[in-house]
Amino acid sequence: MVYDPVLTTRRDDAAEPEAEITLAFENNKYASLVFGLYDQNLAKIERRLRVASFANGNHVTLKGKAESCEHARRVLEALYERISKGQKVNSGEVDGAIEETARQRSLFPNAEPTRGGFEQIITRKRGLVRARNAAQDQYLRAMKRYELVFGVGPAGTGKTWLAVGQAVQLMEQGAVERLILSRPAVEAGERLGFLPGDMREKVDPYLRPIFDALHDFMDSRMVERGLQTGMIEVAPLAFMRGRTLTRACVLLDEAQNATSMQMKMFLTRLGEGSRMIITGDPSQTDLPPGQTSGLSEAVDLLSELDTIGRVKFSEGDVVRHELVRQIVSAYDRAARHKNEARQDRKQQ
C-alpha cells in the first residue's frame, strides 16, 4: 500500500493548508470492500471527516484539510488491514475505525500514539468484536477489570449486546461456569404465574433482546443445550431473592425498572468468582410515577467505591442507525428544556 501526499497552501496563511492524498491498495478485491457497495463507506468517511474522496479501481484520492485527510487515510488503512485478516467491514466498523484512529495518532509523524487500539472481545461464533467508540472501549475494559459494572445510557449504545458478548467470552474461557440472565418484568408486575408456559416461556418476551444478542455470540444449538443443562439460566428479577450466585456471570438488563429494594437484593446476590453487569437507561423507566429507580439510586450510593466499574454512555455513543442517534438527541434536548422550564417556575 502506498500513498502520495500533496499539500497546497491557500492564500490565507492563517488557515489550515489543503491536502491531497492518493492511496493505492495492493489487492483490488480488498480495496472494493474497503470502499463499500457503491462507495458507501467512502461516503460515510466524507460526511464524518469532511473530506472529498475519488475512487478509481484500487486507488482513492482524498482532498480537504490536511488533518482530515490524514485521519481519513488512517481510517482506510485500518479498514484494509481488517479485511486482509478476513474480518468483515460494515457501516458500524467504519464508525469504529474513525473513532479509534482519532485516538491513536496525531497529524505529526513523530507523535506517539495516545493509547493502544480499542478493546475487543472474542467468541467462537462471532470472532473478534472491537469497540466502536471511546465509551464502548471504556465499557469493555471495565467489564474485564471489575467484578461489578454499571453501564448506563440511552438505547442503541451497545450496552446489552457487549455485555452478553463479554459474558459468553468468560464462559468459553472457563472463567465462569454459568450465565444468568435477568430483567425486571414491570409490565406484568409480579403476576408471572398467570402467564402460560414454564418460567422461560413466561419471561421470554421481556428477555428477547438478550436472547437475540446471545444468538449473535453463540450457535443456536449451544444456546438450547445451555438452557437445558442450566449453564444458561433465565430468571426474572423478582425470583432472585435468597440465592447466592457463585462462579456465574449475571446480567441484569433494563435495570432502570428495578425498585430500590429489588436492586439492593440483586446486588447482594454476588458470590465468589462471579461477575455482575447491570445495564439500563434511567430516562426510560416504566416504574409508577414517584417511585425511585433502583438503578439511579445504586449508581449514586456506590459512586465512591473504586472497586466498581461505572460507564456512562451519551447520545453521541449510539451505534445503531444514524437516525437513532438523532432521535435520542432530540428527546434529550426536549427533556433538558422541560427541566429548565420547571426550574424557572420554581424560582418564580
**How many domains make up the 3D coordinates?**
2
Order of the strands making up the biggest sheet: 9-8-10-11-7-12
The CATH topology name of the largest domain reads Rossmann fold
CATH-level-4 superfamily name of the largest domain: P-loop containing nucleotide triphosphate hydrolases
Instruction: Let me know the largest β-sheet.
Output: 6 strands, parallel
pLDDT < 50 stretches: 6-14, 106-115
Name the structural class.
alpha/beta
Average pLDDT score:
82
Account of the protein in words:
Helix 1 crosses helix 3, helix 3 crosses helix 4 and helix 5 runs parallel beside helix 6. The chain has 11 helices and 12 strands. With 348 residues, it is of the alpha/beta class. It has 2 domains: 103 residues, K Homology domain, type 1 (Ribosomal Protein S8, Chain: A, domain 1, 2-Layer Sandwich), CATH 3.30.1370; 219 residues, Rossmann fold. 43% of the residues lie in helices and 18% in strands. The strands form 3 sheets. A 6-stranded parallel β-sheet has the order 9-8-10-11-7-12. It starts with a strand and ends with a helix.
Concise synopsis of the structure shown:
The chain has 11 helices and 12 strands. With 348 residues, the protein is of the alpha/beta class.
What's the arrangement of secondary structure elements?
Layout: E1 2-8, E2 18-24, H1 28-35, H2 40-49, E3 52-56, E4 59-65, H3 66-84, H4 91-104, E5 120-123, E6 127-130, H5 134-145, E7 148-152, H6 159-173, E8 178-182, H7 199-217, H8 220-229, E9 232-234, E10 248-252, H9 260-267, E11 275-280, H10 294-301, E12 309-312, H11 322-347
Parallel strand pairs: 7-11, 7-12, 8-9, 8-10, 10-11
Antiparallel strand pairs: 1-2, 2-4, 3-4, 5-6
Helix pairs in contact: 1-3, 2-4, 3-4, 5-6, 6-7, 9-10
